[in-house]
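Write out this protein's structure.
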Amino acid sequence: MNRKSPFKYLILTAVIIIIDQITKIVVRNKMELYQSISVIGDFFRLTHVENPGAAFSIGFDSPYVNRIFFSILTFLMIFFILFLLKQSKSFLEKLSFSFVLGGAIGNLIDRLIFGAVTDFFDFDFINIFGLDRWPVFNIADSSIVVGVFILLYHTIFFEIRDVKKENLSNDMPVPEKKDDFETDTNVEEEDCFESGETDKENKENNETDS
């Protein structure tokens, strides 16, 4: 895929959105709100919750304000990511933008239709960050996280490396220009030629005087 057709990566975005919406439809239709089903003991559960705010339930007290604010914010983010996707030259960057875009649109659909995002993955990560359980999330949230990690990987291992190489090349001494060397050589040859001519003339004059 070349830079002229970056939107081919939107196929991945569409797949993420479809999977995200199918899983949410199943959860809403098959599970009661706050119902929890054990998958791997207490470590992994499917728990149906509706989140009117952002990640980690961040938001305002009013569900209506949350719906309007986060919908507008998501729209702005989507347009910005599309711009970055169009400008990007890197495969990893385009891949990361596709993941983030799929997650953002998946959650935006929930906000516009239901006023809240359907979450259901419920993990217990041994009290990380002082939390008894990790905040419940969904496919769209996972997609955004994957996209961010890909972008971080690209930045750390590729962009920073390229900057270091560029700085190293700028610090290297610049060799003398070939033209200057050739000019100096020509001058030396002309001096030698003129010196030889002068010696020849002096020798002829001495023979004449003799």
